[in-house]
Amino acid sequence: MKPSLSLVHGQPLSTEPGLGTLTMPGFIREVTARFSENEALVYRVGDRAERWSYAQLWARSFEVARALIACGVNKDARVGVLMTNRPEFLAATFGAALAGAVAVPLNTFSTAPELAQLLKASGVSLLLFERRIAGKDFAAMLAELAPELKTAAPGALHSSAYPFLRRAVAVDPDGGADLGAMETWDAWLKHADAIAPALVDARSATTKPSDVGAIFFSSGTTSLPKGIVHAHRGISVQWWRSQNLFRTHGDVRFWTANGFFWSGNFMLAIGNALSTGGSIVLQSVFDPGEALSLMEKERVTYPVASMHQWSRMEGAANWRSADLSSLRYVDFRYPNREGTNIKTDWRLPLAYGTTETLAINCATQGLKAPIPKHCYGVPLPGNTLKVVDPATGAIVPRGERGELAIKGVTLMLGYLGKTPEECFDEAGFYRTGDGGYIDAEGRVFFEGRLSDIIKTGGANVSPLEIDAAIRNHPDVKVTQTIGVPHPTLGEIVVACIVLHEGAKLDETALRDYLKARLASFKVPRRILFLNDGEIVMTGSNKVKAGGLRELAAKRLGPSGEG
């Protein structure tokens, strides 16, 4: 008898309960109608707490939409949002959707070269940004990238480096006296007065589920971040399905310090909180002690934190004293609850996904226990997954290992600047580069990446991008960046270096060199200096990474720190 092929379908999307309007304007309109007076978000700065109800979030988003329209933003125009977790991020994102535009969340860890690349690749016409983040002055950075900002009138920017960019608007607590052509948030919002509310209603009514809703950037198998284009339908489906997928009941109080430019946080926070009539407790930059204080004061029920964030919170001075009894939705794998008052039997469904599928495409929710190791459930409704031979693309038999490939309702529309043939196979599947198999019961098993992408602290890091930056240093002869297992971060970024003869470069100097060229999470945590003979090359003159991982792991020891 011929073995079954590794192809498994989720239930039809039409069978999924709880779905509302499948556009971003429709989502915010529906949840506002249901939960108008509920608290939608809280943002604490020191002793001051800013709270918006759903009605206020709607009003602020509507105001942003009117200002965007007044400034010439038309359908499908791209609106960059460069902000930490703050109320204006949500108003900017929903405002762009209401105006018929496309929200483009941008990485707040970006250095000047990285921001330049993101602005060029995204083609944003209007940038809404937070001026000061973690010691960076993005207004000064932008003025350096586009000197025309120093002389152009507000809204009249013409830059050959960024030919589509016309305006930059700063959320600036200092008032922005030296912003030049860049407008301050409050001054820019006054443009809204020129636009009748009916025009926003008319625009949002034309939005279709198939229209482009947002563009996310994610490090992939190339040296530069890829622009991943998503439709309104995929985003809305993930938001609506959150409460069923994660079994959240009643209004969720969701704490997050992870950036909304990560598609996973974008889906988890907005979906779990707003689809339930709950609230998002925003923390701009992660601080472990402050995070615990926020959870206690705001009676958080759902904290989303990576393993290394929990590890840092466990080491905070207020870990034992903080009242965490309100927490209900806590990942069973961490934190260490001994000595705390965290009491919950909720189990986080294991899930598999990528930015290309808006975070989650398979989950164990609904499967009977026990769940086997490496099992990530079955495809969610509207999705199909197959396992193919990485070399030929042919579907392999059930139980045989290969490359996971996915298509369905939350799959991206494509990559910016890429043809469909460069994004999908002939059957329309996205090949993930991840390895795994489908068992006889149709369950999906994920066993690791076939590519060399490093996942550290929840972020994907391209070793090619890091090596490109290291290779520019005049003292470096050979470089190979690898991921080495780490007990809390998953992996740490380790650069293996061979120097030119006579060079005196040390670890601190090279890290300082890279800090000016790479976001902080991409800078190697450790740098190992090797001899020529310790780096083995392939016949095509490429470094063999496998042997280096073993060598690095041995030198750094079980802690991964050396």
Gap from first CA to last CA: 54 Å
Structural class: alpha/beta
The number of strands is 28
The helix count comes to 15
Please compute the radius of gyration using only Cα atoms: 24 Å
Summarize the structure.
With 562 residues, the protein is of the alpha/beta class. Helix content is 27%, strand content 23%.
Question: What keyword list fits this structure?
Answer:
GMP Synthetase, Chain A, domain 3; 562 residues; 23% strand; Rossmann fold; alpha/beta; 5-stranded mixed beta sheet
Which helices and strands, and how do they pair?
Blueprint: E1 7-9, H1 24-35, E2 39-45, E3 48-53, H2 54-70, E4 78-82, H3 87-98, E5 102-105, H4 112-122, E6 126-130, E7 132-133, E8 136-137, H5 138-145, E9 167-171, E10 183-184, H6 185-189, H7 197-205, E11 212-218, E12 226-231, H8 232-245, E13 253-256, H9 263-274, E14 279-282, H10 288-297, E15 302-303, H11 307-314, E16 351-352, E17 362-363, E18 378-379, E19 383-388, E20 402-408, E21 414-415, H12 420-423, E22 430-438, E23 444-449, E24 454-456, E25 459-461, H13 463-471, E26 476-486, E27 490-499, H14 507-515, E28 526-529, H15 545-556
Parallel strand pairs: 2-14, 4-5, 4-6, 6-9, 9-10, 13-14, 13-15, 27-28
Antiparallel strand pairs: 1-19, 2-3, 7-8, 11-12, 12-21, 16-17, 17-18, 19-20, 20-22, 22-23, 24-25, 26-27
Helix pairs in contact: 1-2, 2-3, 8-9, 10-11
